Amino acid sequence: MLKSREKNIFKYIAVVGLLIFLHFIKILSPIEDAIINVFRPALSKIYTVGSELNISYSEQTNKKDLIKVIDELKKERNKLIAEKTKLEFVREENEKLRQYLKFFTTENYNYVLANVISQNVFIDAQKQNQYIIIDKGRKDGLADGLAVLDGQGVLVGKIAEVEENISKVFLVTNQDCKLAVLIQNQAAGQERTAGIAQGDLGLTVKLDFIPQTQKIEIGQLAVTSGLEEKIKRGLVIGKIVQVNSGSNEVWQTAVIEPLANLNELVIASVLLP
Amino acid sequence: MYSKIFLNLFFLIILFVLRLSFVPALPSWLSRLDLLIIALVFILTLVDFKTAFWWSLGAGFLLDIFSFLPFGFYLVSLFLALLAVNFLFNSFFTNRSLYSFLTLTFFYTLFYRILLSGAVYIWQFFGDREFFKIFILEFWRDLGASIASNLIAVFMLFYLFGFFSKKLKPVFLIKRK
Fold first, then answer.
1. Is A122 exposed, middle or buried (CB count within 10 Å of its CB: 0-12, 13-18, 19+)?
2. Which of A12, A211, A255, B25 could anchor a disulfide with A51, C-beta 3.0 to 4.6 Å?
3. Is some CB atom of chain B closer than 8 A to the CB atom of A128?
4. In angstroms, rounded to a whole number, what is the distance separating the alpha carbons of residues A18 and A21?
5. What was the ipTM of the complex prediction?
6. How far apart are alpha carbons A22 and A13 in whole angstroms?
């Protein structure tokens, strides 16, 4: 009885081993590709359903804070209207200068639209390691390090790993996601503050090693600096919500809150170089 | 025979799709629910080890295709955890009571997550990234959430099965005078 049970277990182990072996000698590749291609549309649709449920749940739980949020948004809107008016003048001036210099417009990005098919599902998906999986891969021209944006053009993360038909995207809050950023604090009459931003606890983005001489303030925007080969300059990441500058410290640190709602992301665009 | 295979495959795919795309997008602790583990515990206890093995093979294979870890991590972890839980089922939790279901689900989730995390650690050990989640509080918090949500789901499913099926009804032997 015991011997037959042991024999059976060896049979099961052999089946598992054979399956792994067949994968590594690539015999299963066509089947695996076919499965991924068949599943992709269904996965993205089902992910959207789950995400919508999540959004409506969040809306229900957040209703209490809505009045406060509306007040804050009204103030912010008024500020933005004023800023927009100023920027309109700058844009017009910029356009004229570009015409004179015969520059190409830099806003014509090449991009690939992708559906999110899963998030944080695997073992390395604890909060510090937030990521999503999108339904586009190497076949669609994607590569490691490319920037991923949401519908409003805000940076949500960068591609960490690429397979033939799918890609893994580290969200900006992921501790493994490092980005070269600039703080838009030029108004203070100094050079823009540059640094490396890194995800922190899966919730925010942290900017370290800022010299004490640099003046940064809450509410200033953090954008990509363009120092990374595959990520263009000027993509908005978030705004500063906290500045830690102890008088005894050599460096100051800043906490950036991402502008994109990372939990509600269902469609993303990947910027091609 | 073929209809049984087809039916199993159909339910496996449904559960896999829900596990991969629907559940992670849900709010709060619901996103840590592991439908495949719950299904494997129910199949192991209500059907047989052989069917549970094919389910673990199919689920592991599908998870491995969509994961960015080396192929086989999910397959082997699900299979080894199934072997361990099968041993517990045959040796200690032989009845089909609610407590057996809850205990087996607890151990399946625990074994599976520790095996997988251990495998990932060994793999990452040769790389340069810090990855040993077992010593991180977040790992245990996440595992706790996963176990709790699985146990709650099994608790509800147990009574649901009991309502529709006779397999979970207790049998009493009455001694005649």
1. buried
2. B25
3. yes
4. 5
5. 0.72
6. 14
B122 vs A: CB within 8 A: no
Sign of torsion, CA B50 B51 B52 B53? positive
The region that residue A209 occupies, defined by phi over 0 for left and psi between -120 and 50 for alpha, beta otherwise, is left
Predicted TM-score (pTM) of this structure: 0.72
Find the CB nearest B21 among A19, A50, A58.
A50
Give SS3 for A237: strand
Residue B54, amino acid: W
Whether residue B63 has pLDDT greater than 50: yes
- Amino acid at site A113: L
If you classify domain B1-164 with CATH, what class do you get?
A: mainly alpha
A121 at interface of B, judged by CB pairs closer than 8 A: yes
d(CA B177, CA B175): 6
Residue A116 in 3-state DSSP?
strand
The whole-number pLDDT of residue B84 equals 92
Q: Which of A16, A36, A50 is nearest residue B25 as measured by Cβ atoms? A: A50
- H-helix or E-strand containing B42? helix B35-46
